[in-house]
């Protein structure tokens, strides 16, 4: 139990450091300035706006969840899949599939989160990853439910807790990626 606690604290520290460093190091776009043979030059645009707290929390939790998945959930699920494979190949392969999806999703969470922190205007890249994450977490619970017997139902119930956290993060990412539509009913030009 102590090893688990140390691992979670370590992963949280790594996620905090990664998101802090990524938020500090934004990238400036190169812009063409001036026209003509003697006046044309390249310059860097001012850095984009600083990432908001919601984006920092989303990226930080994404990095943390990716580390937990790669070093905890996916190896545990793969070991269970290999144990189940002999008795019920369909359930074993479905567990292996969601474990592989989780590892790939972890890479996407880190990549999208760090990129969005460096340039918050690119937060729309969260959209496909948010949808993938939501579908993945629902499929994890279904894969555990495929085990069929009372142990499978118990494991599906246990998987519901981390999957609910992953699904909440997916919905939060979707909320950031699809901001509310602002309509001004008093604007005559629209």
Provide the spatial order of strands within the biggest beta sheet: 1-2
Residue share in β-strands: under 5%
Mean pLDDT: 80
N/C terminus separation? 60 Å
- Taken in chain order, the helices and strands follow as HEEHHHH
Total of helices:
5
- What summary fits the major beta sheet? 2 strands, antiparallel
Provide the structure class.
mainly alpha
Which ranges are low-confidence, i.e. pLDDT below 50, for 5 or more consecutive residues?
none
Offer a concise description of the structure:
By secondary structure, this protein is mostly helical. It has helices spanning 2-24, 53-85, 89-118, 126-145, 150-177; strands at residues 30-33, 41-44.
Structure description:
The structure is a single chain. This protein is mostly helical and 190 residues long. Helices cover 71% and strands 4% of the residues. The chain is built from five helices and two strands. It has helices spanning 2-24, 53-85, 89-118, 126-145, 150-177; strands at 30-33, 41-44. A two-stranded antiparallel ribbon has the order 1-2. α1 packs across α2 (53-85), α1 (2-24) runs parallel beside α3 (89-118) and α3 (89-118) runs antiparallel to α4 (126-145). It is elongated, with a radius of gyration of 21 Å. The N and C termini lie far apart (60 Å). The mean pLDDT is 80.
